[in-house]
Amino acid sequence: MTRSKWPLPDVVDPLDSICFQVKVPNNGYHIRAFLGAIYELSKPYAWQNDSAHTALLAGAVWSKIFDKLLPGCPCPTFPPSGILEDLEMPLRVDCDCNVFVTCCDGTEKQLLTAEQVKALLAGSSVVGAPQPKPGGGQQCYPVSLQANQLWLLPTVVNTGDTILINNAEGANNDGQALSWQCPDGTRYFAGTCGLPVASYGADPLPTANHGQLVLELAGTFYALTPGTPFTVPGGIANQSPTIQANLQLSTASGQMSFNVCVTNNATLTWTHTFDFTLSSGGFVPNLDGGGNAQAVWVPGAGWEQTFIPNDGAGIAEMRCRFHRTGITPAFAVTAMTALVNFHAGSTIDPTAGQDFGLFDGGAHFAYTMTPTYSSNGDNQILGGPIAASGITQIFFDFYVGLAVTPTNPGGTCLVKSITISGTGTDPF
Question: In the prediction, which pLDDT does 73 show?
């Protein structure tokens, strides 16, 4: 027997619609029959033919209706209408011609123009999208994804970062069968998920469940399991991944919503400069055996040398020695430099040098600095890279000159600033 076809509507896609409340018997056979009957209307062959192929448009209208079927009564209500589109959602256009749609829950979503999408794809992140901070910072993004679309993560990721899907809802259909899949790749039936789904060789990721959320990163697909963090593999630097359903998008239908949380596990770095022209920086002078200060802080200038006529052993010294101790929390350092004016005096001990370094509570991570006594000059940058951790003390110690008491050996030393870079949290 030949099945009769539905007459073509005179208005294929009217602006308004009517809501029917239908109570379907809570039985699997009834539910499948009901969904199958509605789904049949999305097929062009269910409609009469004409030369304009109107049946294609009529089927598309019912495909949208099928995708929006939700269990539960009564029918949802919509907010007051503005400028209506066929989805019955008001549109708002701001003074910069940005377009926003009001969702059923009253929230707004921006609709990107073709130019904005091109700029988005060309850039590293969505303009204005909050970014996860290095050192374990996390940022979550709400997503509403049509099953035939891609979603671009609005931040770049690197090796070691994690991506977590949670609160996943909705379902997708591949357009080839009546079955629907949940975002976790299980079967969607009567508003619930859980039945297993097979994998298909034609899917973007053949080893993952059909319809499961997958992530494309640097040309490779990875399965995403809601509730289980995905760790970005090695060799990835500043890449913008996309998320989609694991099926052929060209024929897919349905909608899914979920949250994507990205944790930025990049090492946190910092740099801190002690400007001694403004303050002592929390440093204090060292004292010799006689209680004499071996440096002095001069406001507007920095840390300078002091003259000690007798160090207790018959030596007169010009010394610039100061330090900062008890730094908490202990920190890891990657570089340290000092801006110094140095002009050496006379010396009776050429082996007396200049140290600028760190203590970790035991080991001495010291630099042997240049200039030596014969290298004088202003605004010299001393120091460079260093690898040390657990640091709790910074010190600076320059012998500017040495002589037999009571001779003044002369010489000057002015430390204008110290700059330290490290990893983790800035301890200062």
Answer: 64
